[in-house]
Amino acid sequence: MEELTPFDVAALQYLYGTPGTNGGIARPSGTVPPPGQNIQPVVNQRPTAFTISDSATIVRPGVYSDLVLATIHISDDGLGLAFPVLVGNGSHSFRLEQKHDHWQLKPPLHLNRHAGEQLEVTIRLMANGSGPDITPDLNFTLTVQRSVAGAPHDIRIETNDGGRTHINENTPLPSRLKIADLRVEDSLDRPLQNMHFVIRGDDAALFEIVDDILYLRAGVKLDYETNPSLDIVVGIRETELAINFNVSVGDVREQKADTPILTGIQKVGVQLAASTSHNGNIVIENIEWTRQGADDVLSDIEIFRADAPGTYQVKVTYWVKNIIFNVKQPSRTWTKTFMIAPLEDTATADGRVAQGHAFDLEEPHNPEQNDEAFSSSLPDIA
Question: Which of 140, 233, 235, 292 has the fewest CB atoms nearer than 10 Å to its CB?
C-alpha cells in the first residue's frame, strides 16, 4: 500500500473528519434526510476521558499470573467501540485484559529474566473503528528490582482460617469482620515478620489491618447495586510490592420500595441513575443534578472521580401509579445532597495508613418530602 501524502490526509479529513470525531462533509449528520424521515445527528461518539491509575510500578522478579499493574478507564464511549492497544518497543512485555467496565494492564508472566530492568509501554486509544483517537497516549514504566535475601518478595492473602471472599449486602457489622491473614516471604520463600502493611484502592477506607490480619471495618454498610465488589490493593510501606484483592458482595432480594433507587458504581465513575426497575408503578417526571456553586443543571452526573470533588445534589420528582384506579397520583419530591472528598490518606486503627476516597453522605431536611423513606443504595462510610 502506498503511503498517503499530506494532501491525501487533508482530503480524507475534509470528507470524513479527523479520526475519532464527527466532522467531515460525508458524515450522516451532514446529509439531507428523505421526505418524512428525520436523521438525528450522532452525539457523544468520542470518549471524554482516557485515564490510567497505577497499582504497582516497582516489582521484584518472580512469576505473576494475576498482578494488576494499572487500571485503564475509557469514559463516555458512546458507541462502545473504543479500546486500548499497546504500542512501542515494550508492548510485547505487557498484557491487557478487559473487565466489565475497565481494562487491566498486567506484566509478563515471568519477570525473573527482567531483574534490574525498566520496562516501558505506551497505551493508545483506538476509537470507533476509525483508527487512533485524538486523545493523548498514556505511558507506563515498570521497574523490576533485583532479588535480595531477607527483603520482602511476595505477599500472600490467605482466607482459609476464618477469612472470606464473599459477604451478602445489608449484613450487620457491629464489630470488625476478619477477611484474611497476610503473609510475607523473601525471595528464598522464608517468612518475614513485622511488616508494615498499607491498603490502597477504591475501597481502602472500608478495610483495616491489625496484627497482620485484614478486617472489614465495623459499621460498614454493603450494597450490591452500587458496589458489587470491594476492591483493594495490599502493599508494604516504603516498597512497591503489592497484591490485588477483592471481596464480592452478594445480592439479597429486597422488598419492593415505592420510591426510586439510586444506582451506579461510584468508584469507577459510572453514571448514577434514579432507577425504577425494581417497581414498575413508579413514574419519574423530572430529575435534576446540580453542583453547589454552579448555576447550570447537569444533564448527567460523573462526580465520583478523584478529579471532581465537591458537593452535589439530586432532585427527583415522581409519582406512583394506583394499581386500582389508573389515574395520575400527586407528585412527590425527594432531594439528597452528596459530598465527595478527593483521594486522601486515612489512618487505620493501628496507626497505619490507608489511601482511598472519602464519601460523605448527608440527608438534609426537605419539607416537600413525603412520609415514605427514600431507599438509597449508596453506602454510608463512617
Answer: 292
Asked if 292 and 226 sit in the same domain, the reply is no
Q: Are residues 269 and 323 in the same domain?
A: yes
Return the CATH number at 188.
2.60.40.60
Regarding predicted confidence, which is higher, 105 or 100? 105
Q: Please tell me the total count of domains within the chain.
A: 4
Residue 331 lies in domain: 261-362
In-domain check, residue 226? yes
Cα–Cα distance between 354 and 196 in angstroms, integer? Answer: 12
In a domain, 189, yes or no: yes
Instruction: Tell me, yes or no, whether 255 lies in a domain.
Output: no
pLDDT tens, position by position, 250-309: 988 765 666 666 665 545 444 566 667 767 778 888 877 777 666 566 655 544 444 566
Domain assignment present for residue 39? The answer is no
